[in-house]
Protein backbone atom coordinates (compact mmCIF):
# COMPACT_ATOMS: atom_id res chain seq x y z
CA UNK A 1 0.00 0.00 0.00
CA UNK A 2 1.26 3.46 -0.87
CA UNK A 3 0.12 6.74 0.65
CA UNK A 4 0.73 9.77 -1.53
CA UNK A 5 0.93 13.02 0.44
CA UNK A 6 3.11 15.62 -1.29
CA UNK A 7 2.38 18.43 1.18
CA UNK A 8 4.90 19.19 3.91
CA UNK A 9 3.97 19.18 7.58
CA UNK A 10 0.73 17.29 7.01
CA UNK A 11 -0.63 14.63 9.34
CA UNK A 12 -2.06 11.64 7.49
CA UNK A 13 -4.36 9.12 9.17
CA UNK A 14 -4.84 5.71 7.56
CA UNK A 15 -7.36 3.06 8.56
CA UNK A 16 -7.33 -0.47 7.20
CA UNK A 17 -10.83 -1.89 7.61
CA UNK A 18 -11.43 -5.23 9.25
CA UNK A 19 -11.13 -8.20 6.94
CA UNK A 20 -8.49 -6.78 4.60
CA UNK A 21 -5.45 -8.10 6.47
CA UNK A 22 -4.81 -11.80 6.10
CA UNK A 23 -5.20 -14.10 9.09
CA UNK A 24 -6.98 -11.53 11.22
CA UNK A 25 -10.37 -9.88 11.49
CA UNK A 26 -8.99 -6.79 13.21
CA UNK A 27 -8.95 -3.27 11.80
CA UNK A 28 -5.76 -1.22 11.93
CA UNK A 29 -5.28 2.53 12.23
CA UNK A 30 -2.10 4.59 12.23
CA UNK A 31 -0.94 8.09 11.37
CA UNK A 32 2.20 9.92 10.40
CA UNK A 33 3.25 13.51 9.74
CA UNK A 34 5.21 14.40 6.64
CA UNK A 35 8.51 16.22 6.97
CA UNK A 36 8.37 20.00 7.04
CA UNK A 37 11.34 22.01 5.82
CA UNK A 38 12.40 24.21 8.75
CA UNK A 39 12.03 27.94 8.40
CA UNK A 40 15.44 29.34 7.58
CA UNK A 41 16.22 32.94 8.39
CA UNK A 42 19.98 33.29 8.05
CA UNK A 43 21.57 36.08 10.09
CA UNK A 44 22.66 38.89 7.78
CA UNK A 45 25.43 40.27 9.99
CA UNK A 46 28.70 38.81 11.27
CA UNK A 47 29.44 38.14 14.92
CA UNK A 48 32.89 39.76 14.81
CA UNK A 49 33.86 40.66 11.25
CA UNK A 50 33.96 44.39 10.57
CA UNK A 51 36.25 44.93 7.59
CA UNK A 52 34.55 45.69 4.30
CA UNK A 53 36.26 42.67 2.78
CA UNK A 54 34.80 40.22 5.28
CA UNK A 55 31.35 41.79 5.00
CA UNK A 56 31.54 41.42 1.22
CA UNK A 57 32.68 37.80 1.56
CA UNK A 58 29.81 36.96 3.92
CA UNK A 59 27.33 38.65 1.57
CA UNK A 60 28.73 36.50 -1.24
CA UNK A 61 28.08 33.33 0.78
CA UNK A 62 24.61 34.59 1.66
CA UNK A 63 23.76 35.29 -1.97
CA UNK A 64 24.67 31.76 -3.04
CA UNK A 65 23.28 29.86 -0.05
CA UNK A 66 20.63 27.40 -1.14
CA UNK A 67 21.37 28.18 -4.80
CA UNK A 68 24.93 26.90 -5.32
CA UNK A 69 27.60 25.02 -3.36
CA UNK A 70 31.10 26.51 -3.23
CA UNK A 71 34.04 24.15 -3.82
CA UNK A 72 37.19 23.99 -1.71
CA UNK A 73 40.19 21.79 -0.98
CA UNK A 74 42.63 21.43 1.93
CA UNK A 75 46.20 22.57 1.40
CA UNK A 76 49.06 20.07 1.37
CA UNK A 77 50.81 20.78 4.68
CA UNK A 78 48.81 23.89 5.14
CA UNK A 79 50.44 26.96 3.54
CA UNK A 80 50.28 26.44 -0.22
CA UNK A 81 47.93 25.65 -3.12
CA UNK A 82 49.57 22.44 -4.39
CA UNK A 83 46.40 20.36 -4.14
CA UNK A 84 44.30 23.06 -5.78
CA UNK A 85 46.81 23.03 -8.65
CA UNK A 86 46.32 19.25 -9.00
CA UNK A 87 42.54 19.66 -9.11
CA UNK A 88 42.99 22.29 -11.82
CA UNK A 89 45.26 19.95 -13.81
CA UNK A 90 42.68 17.15 -13.57
CA UNK A 91 39.46 19.05 -14.17
CA UNK A 92 40.51 22.27 -15.88
CA UNK A 93 39.11 24.30 -12.97
CA UNK A 94 40.36 25.51 -9.63
CA UNK A 95 38.20 25.13 -6.52
CA UNK A 96 36.74 28.45 -5.46
CA UNK A 97 38.41 28.20 -2.03
CA UNK A 98 41.66 26.90 -0.58
CA UNK A 99 41.97 25.98 3.10
CA UNK A 100 45.19 26.83 4.97
CA UNK A 101 46.01 25.37 8.41
CA UNK A 102 48.12 26.82 11.23
CA UNK A 103 49.04 23.29 12.37
CA UNK A 104 52.81 23.92 12.43
CA UNK A 105 52.91 27.44 13.84
CA UNK A 106 54.30 26.11 17.14
CA UNK A 107 57.77 25.65 15.56
CA UNK A 108 60.35 28.06 17.02
CA UNK A 109 61.87 30.46 14.49
CA UNK A 110 59.28 30.27 11.74
CA UNK A 111 60.80 29.55 8.33
CA UNK A 112 64.01 27.93 9.58
CA UNK A 113 65.11 24.33 8.93
CA UNK A 114 62.65 24.08 6.08
CA UNK A 115 59.61 24.81 8.26
CA UNK A 116 56.86 27.16 7.15
CA UNK A 117 57.15 30.87 7.75
CA UNK A 118 53.54 31.77 8.44
CA UNK A 119 54.46 35.43 8.64
CA UNK A 120 55.17 35.30 4.92
CA UNK A 121 51.59 35.53 3.67
CA UNK A 122 52.61 35.36 0.00
CA UNK A 123 50.91 31.98 -0.71
CA UNK A 124 47.64 33.21 0.78
CA UNK A 125 47.85 36.61 -0.91
CA UNK A 126 48.61 35.04 -4.30
CA UNK A 127 45.51 32.89 -3.95
CA UNK A 128 43.35 35.84 -2.95
CA UNK A 129 44.77 37.99 -5.74
CA UNK A 130 43.60 35.47 -8.35
CA UNK A 131 40.07 35.65 -6.96
CA UNK A 132 40.27 32.64 -4.65
CA UNK A 133 38.43 32.59 -1.32
CA UNK A 134 40.63 31.99 1.73
CA UNK A 135 39.73 29.40 4.36
CA UNK A 136 41.70 29.11 7.59
CA UNK A 137 41.71 26.46 10.32
CA UNK A 138 43.99 25.46 13.18
CA UNK A 139 45.06 22.09 14.49
CA UNK A 140 46.15 23.68 17.77
CA UNK A 141 49.12 21.62 18.97
CA UNK A 142 50.30 21.63 22.59
CA UNK A 143 53.44 20.18 24.25
CA UNK A 144 53.22 16.58 25.35
CA UNK A 145 54.14 17.74 28.86
CA UNK A 146 55.17 20.87 30.74
CA UNK A 147 58.85 20.02 30.47
CA UNK A 148 58.86 18.68 26.92
CA UNK A 149 61.05 20.66 24.58
CA UNK A 150 59.36 21.59 21.34
CA UNK A 151 62.11 20.85 18.86
CA UNK A 152 62.90 22.20 15.44
CA UNK A 153 61.99 18.85 13.90
CA UNK A 154 58.43 19.38 15.06
CA UNK A 155 58.49 16.74 17.76
CA UNK A 156 57.17 17.20 21.27
CA UNK A 157 53.66 18.41 20.42
CA UNK A 158 50.27 16.84 19.79
CA UNK A 159 46.53 17.46 19.46
CA UNK A 160 45.74 14.07 21.00
CA UNK A 161 44.59 14.36 24.65
CA UNK A 162 45.85 10.83 25.37
CA UNK A 163 49.41 11.87 24.48
CA UNK A 164 49.74 15.02 26.55
CA UNK A 165 49.45 16.15 30.15
CA UNK A 166 48.12 19.51 28.89
CA UNK A 167 44.82 20.20 30.65
CA UNK A 168 42.32 22.22 28.64
CA UNK A 169 40.81 23.67 31.82
CA UNK A 170 44.18 25.05 32.87
CA UNK A 171 44.52 26.92 29.57
CA UNK A 172 42.24 29.56 31.06
CA UNK A 173 43.91 29.68 34.50
CA UNK A 174 46.55 32.35 34.95
CA UNK A 175 49.89 31.11 36.25
CA UNK A 176 49.69 27.68 34.63
CA UNK A 177 52.04 26.52 31.89
CA UNK A 178 49.00 25.63 29.82
CA UNK A 179 47.72 29.21 30.04
CA UNK A 180 51.09 30.59 28.93
CA UNK A 181 51.19 28.25 25.91
CA UNK A 182 47.56 28.93 24.99
CA UNK A 183 48.05 32.67 24.77
CA UNK A 184 51.51 32.70 23.23
CA UNK A 185 50.27 30.50 20.39
CA UNK A 186 47.18 32.66 19.91
CA UNK A 187 49.50 35.68 19.72
CA UNK A 188 51.37 34.03 16.84
CA UNK A 189 48.18 33.28 14.91
CA UNK A 190 46.68 36.69 15.61
CA UNK A 191 49.80 38.34 14.19
CA UNK A 192 49.33 36.48 10.90
CA UNK A 193 45.60 37.24 10.83
CA UNK A 194 46.36 40.92 11.25
CA UNK A 195 48.86 40.79 8.38
CA UNK A 196 46.16 39.27 6.20
CA UNK A 197 43.72 41.90 7.42
CA UNK A 198 46.16 44.69 6.55
CA UNK A 199 46.48 43.15 3.07
CA UNK A 200 42.71 43.35 2.63
CA UNK A 201 42.17 39.59 2.90
CA UNK A 202 39.11 38.15 4.64
CA UNK A 203 38.69 34.47 5.48
CA UNK A 204 36.49 31.84 7.01
CA UNK A 205 37.90 30.65 10.35
CA UNK A 206 37.32 27.13 11.73
CA UNK A 207 39.10 26.67 15.09
CA UNK A 208 38.58 23.91 17.67
CA UNK A 209 36.88 21.70 15.07
CA UNK A 210 35.16 18.39 15.91
CA UNK A 211 35.18 19.32 19.58
CA UNK A 212 32.81 16.61 20.81
CA UNK A 213 34.57 13.77 18.99
CA UNK A 214 32.85 10.60 20.17
CA UNK A 215 31.84 12.09 23.54
CA UNK A 216 28.15 11.96 22.59
CA UNK A 217 28.22 8.18 22.23
CA UNK A 218 25.15 6.77 23.98
CA UNK A 219 26.65 3.47 25.10
CA UNK A 220 29.24 4.93 27.44
CA UNK A 221 31.96 2.75 25.92
CA UNK A 222 35.54 3.78 26.62
CA UNK A 223 36.07 4.98 23.06
CA UNK A 224 33.31 7.54 23.50
CA UNK A 225 35.68 10.44 24.03
CA UNK A 226 36.84 13.63 22.37
CA UNK A 227 39.84 13.09 20.12
CA UNK A 228 41.33 16.59 20.44
CA UNK A 229 42.58 18.18 23.66
CA UNK A 230 40.18 21.11 23.33
CA UNK A 231 37.22 18.77 23.81
CA UNK A 232 38.75 16.40 26.35
CA UNK A 233 37.25 18.06 29.43
CA UNK A 234 33.70 18.35 28.22
CA UNK A 235 31.36 20.79 26.55
CA UNK A 236 31.38 23.53 29.20
CA UNK A 237 35.15 23.90 29.11
CA UNK A 238 35.16 23.63 25.32
CA UNK A 239 32.81 26.60 25.04
CA UNK A 240 34.98 28.61 27.42
CA UNK A 241 38.01 27.99 25.19
CA UNK A 242 36.09 29.10 22.11
CA UNK A 243 34.83 32.28 23.77
CA UNK A 244 38.30 33.01 25.17
CA UNK A 245 39.78 32.88 21.67
CA UNK A 246 36.91 34.91 20.25
CA UNK A 247 37.33 37.63 22.86
CA UNK A 248 41.14 37.63 22.63
CA UNK A 249 41.20 38.00 18.85
CA UNK A 250 38.66 40.80 19.16
CA UNK A 251 40.89 42.48 21.74
CA UNK A 252 43.83 42.13 19.33
CA UNK A 253 41.87 43.90 16.59
CA UNK A 254 41.16 40.91 14.35
CA UNK A 255 38.09 41.84 12.29
CA UNK A 256 38.44 39.83 9.07
CA UNK A 257 37.04 36.41 10.04
CA UNK A 258 33.85 34.42 9.49
CA UNK A 259 33.68 32.10 12.51
CA UNK A 260 32.69 28.48 11.76
CA UNK A 261 31.82 25.92 14.44
CA UNK A 262 32.03 22.22 13.53
CA UNK A 263 29.34 19.92 14.90
CA UNK A 264 29.79 16.18 15.38
CA UNK A 265 26.01 15.74 15.28
CA UNK A 266 24.95 12.08 15.09
CA UNK A 267 28.02 10.86 13.22
CA UNK A 268 25.36 9.58 10.84
CA UNK A 269 23.74 7.26 13.38
CA UNK A 270 21.13 8.58 15.80
CA UNK A 271 20.80 5.12 17.38
CA UNK A 272 24.36 5.35 18.76
CA UNK A 273 24.95 9.07 19.29
CA UNK A 274 23.24 11.99 20.96
CA UNK A 275 23.27 15.42 19.39
CA UNK A 276 26.14 17.69 20.44
CA UNK A 277 24.10 20.87 20.91
CA UNK A 278 25.68 21.35 24.34
CA UNK A 279 29.00 22.03 22.61
CA UNK A 280 27.67 24.93 20.54
CA UNK A 281 29.36 28.18 21.71
CA UNK A 282 26.26 30.28 21.01
CA UNK A 283 24.78 32.33 18.18
CA UNK A 284 26.74 35.40 19.24
CA UNK A 285 30.05 33.56 18.66
CA UNK A 286 29.34 31.62 15.47
CA UNK A 287 28.64 32.70 11.87
CA UNK A 288 28.32 29.28 10.19
CA UNK A 289 27.92 25.67 11.32
CA UNK A 290 29.98 22.93 9.68
CA UNK A 291 29.90 19.14 9.62
CA UNK A 292 32.78 16.82 8.72
CA UNK A 293 31.68 13.69 6.83
CA UNK A 294 33.83 10.89 5.43
CA UNK A 295 32.49 8.02 3.35
CA UNK A 296 28.91 9.13 3.84
CA UNK A 297 26.23 8.36 1.29
CA UNK A 298 23.96 10.88 -0.39
CA UNK A 299 21.20 9.92 2.05
CA UNK A 300 23.47 10.48 5.08
CA UNK A 301 24.53 13.87 3.69
CA UNK A 302 20.89 14.87 3.41
CA UNK A 303 20.15 13.61 6.94
CA UNK A 304 23.05 15.52 8.48
CA UNK A 305 22.34 18.73 6.56
CA UNK A 306 18.63 18.63 7.40
CA UNK A 307 19.25 18.02 11.11
CA UNK A 308 21.78 20.82 11.36
CA UNK A 309 19.66 23.34 9.47
CA UNK A 310 16.75 22.53 11.78
CA UNK A 311 18.96 22.89 14.88
CA UNK A 312 20.63 26.13 13.72
CA UNK A 313 18.09 27.85 11.42
CA UNK A 314 19.83 31.24 11.51
CA UNK A 315 23.22 29.88 10.37
CA UNK A 316 24.50 28.74 6.99
CA UNK A 317 25.33 25.02 7.09
CA UNK A 318 28.53 23.88 5.36
CA UNK A 319 30.46 20.64 4.75
CA UNK A 320 33.63 21.41 6.70
CA UNK A 321 35.57 18.33 5.54
CA UNK A 322 34.76 15.37 3.34
CA UNK A 323 36.36 12.43 1.59
CA UNK A 324 36.62 8.67 1.33
CA UNK A 325 36.66 6.39 4.38
CA UNK A 326 36.57 2.68 5.10
CA UNK A 327 32.84 2.94 4.39
CA UNK A 328 33.48 4.00 0.81
CA UNK A 329 33.54 7.12 -1.34
CA UNK A 330 32.02 10.37 -0.17
CA UNK A 331 28.57 10.92 -1.71
CA UNK A 332 28.59 12.53 -5.16
CA UNK A 333 28.26 16.25 -4.45
CA UNK A 334 25.81 16.84 -7.31
CA UNK A 335 23.59 14.02 -6.12
CA UNK A 336 23.82 15.32 -2.54
CA UNK A 337 22.65 18.71 -3.73
CA UNK A 338 19.75 17.29 -5.71
CA UNK A 339 18.70 15.17 -2.73
CA UNK A 340 18.50 18.24 -0.51
CA UNK A 341 21.93 18.46 1.15
CA UNK A 342 22.41 22.05 0.06
CA UNK A 343 25.71 22.71 1.82
CA UNK A 344 26.96 26.28 1.58
CA UNK A 345 30.37 24.90 0.67
CA UNK A 346 32.34 21.66 0.77
CA UNK A 347 36.03 21.11 1.50
CA UNK A 348 37.88 17.94 0.44
CA UNK A 349 40.68 16.76 2.71
CA UNK A 350 44.17 16.04 1.41
CA UNK A 351 46.44 13.03 2.12
CA UNK A 352 44.02 10.50 0.72
CA UNK A 353 46.21 9.33 -2.18
CA UNK A 354 43.11 9.07 -4.32
CA UNK A 355 43.97 9.45 -7.99
CA UNK A 356 45.96 12.32 -9.41
CA UNK A 357 44.88 14.90 -6.80
CA UNK A 358 46.22 12.95 -3.79
CA UNK A 359 43.11 13.92 -1.86
CA UNK A 360 40.46 11.84 -0.13
CA UNK A 361 38.20 11.89 -3.19
CA UNK A 362 38.76 10.02 -6.45
CA UNK A 363 39.41 11.57 -9.84
CA UNK A 364 35.91 10.53 -10.91
CA UNK A 365 34.41 12.29 -7.88
CA UNK A 366 36.34 15.46 -8.63
CA UNK A 367 35.50 15.47 -12.34
CA UNK A 368 31.82 15.09 -11.53
CA UNK A 369 31.91 17.80 -8.85
CA UNK A 370 33.81 20.38 -10.84
CA UNK A 371 31.58 19.96 -13.89
CA UNK A 372 28.32 20.13 -11.95
CA UNK A 373 26.22 23.21 -12.68
CA UNK A 374 25.44 23.63 -8.98
CA UNK A 375 29.12 23.80 -7.94
CA UNK A 376 30.94 27.13 -7.82
CA UNK A 377 34.58 27.07 -8.96
CA UNK A 378 37.20 29.75 -9.49
CA UNK A 379 36.47 31.69 -12.70
CA UNK A 380 38.01 29.86 -15.66
CA UNK A 381 40.29 32.74 -16.61
CA UNK A 382 42.38 31.69 -13.61
TrEMBL record:
Pfam families recorded: Glyco_hydro_26 (PF02156)
Q: Supply the alphabetized keyword list.
A: Glycosidase, Hydrolase
Tell me the SUPFAM superfamilies matching this sequence: (Trans)glycosidases
Q: Which residues form the GH26 domain?
A: 52-379
Catalytic residues? 210, 321
What protein family is recorded? Answer: Belongs to the glycosyl hydrolase 26 family.
The name under which this protein is listed is Beta-mannosidase
Amino acid sequence: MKANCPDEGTTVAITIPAGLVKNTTAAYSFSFTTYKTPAVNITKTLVAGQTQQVKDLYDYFLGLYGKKVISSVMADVNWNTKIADKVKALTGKYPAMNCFDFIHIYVPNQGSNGWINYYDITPVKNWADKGGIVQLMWHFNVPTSENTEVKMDGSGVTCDPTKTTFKASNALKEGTWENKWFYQEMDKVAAVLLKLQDAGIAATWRPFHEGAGNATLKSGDSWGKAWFWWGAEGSANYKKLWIAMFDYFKQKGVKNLIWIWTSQNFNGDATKYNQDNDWYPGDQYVDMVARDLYGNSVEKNKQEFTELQAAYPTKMIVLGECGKSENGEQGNIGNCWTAGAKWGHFMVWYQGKQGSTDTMCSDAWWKSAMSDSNVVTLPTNH
